[in-house]
Amino acid sequence: MKISAQDEYGLRILLQIARSEPEEGLSIAQLSELEGLSNAYIAKLTRTLRIAGFISSTRGQKGGYILAKPVNEIIIKDVLEALGGALFQKDFCQDYTGGLKLCTNSVDCSVRSLWQMVQMAVDRVLEKVTLEDLIGKEKDSISALKKLLEANALV
C-alpha cells in the first residue's frame, strides 16, 4: 500500500498553512521554499486544496493562502480523498482485469473483500483525525492520535 507524493505533499502544505499567521497566509513561493518543491507543483496542490474548500487565497502584497475552515473542522480523510482518492475504489476491479475484459474473479473474489476491509479500517481512522491533531510536534501528534484511537476503539 502506498501513499502518493500528492497525498504527502498536499497534507504537508496544508499543515504549513495551518501553522502560519492567519492574517498573512503563505504564498506559493514561501510554500515552495518551506517544502523544497517547485512553484508549479505547489500551485497544482494549492489549486486542488482550494477547489476542495480547505484553503482560500488572498490577494495583494501580503497575499497568500489561508485556511478556509478551522483546523478542527478539516478531516484528514476528506483531504486525502480530495488529493488522490481512496486506497481502494469500487472501479479497482475493472482496472485490473489482466488480459481479459472482465476479471476472472469478478463474481467471487476474496482479495476484493480484503481490500474493502482495509479501506474501511483506514477510513475509520482517517475520519476521526483532524488537521488540529497533526498541527503540533510529532510527539504531540503521536500522543493525540493514540488517545483518539483508544477512545474510539480503533486499536
UniProtKB/TrEMBL annotation:
GO terms for cellular component: cytosol. Transmembrane segments: none annotated. SUPFAM superfamilies: Winged helix' DNA-binding domain. It comes from the Bacteria. One of its GO terms (molecular function) is DNA-binding transcription factor activity. InterPro entries: Tscrpt_reg_Rrf2, WH-like_DNA-bd_sf, WH_DNA-bd_sf. This is Transcriptional regulator. It comes from Flavilitoribacter nigricans (strain ATCC 23147 / DSM 23189 / NBRC 102662 / NCIMB 1420 / SS-2).
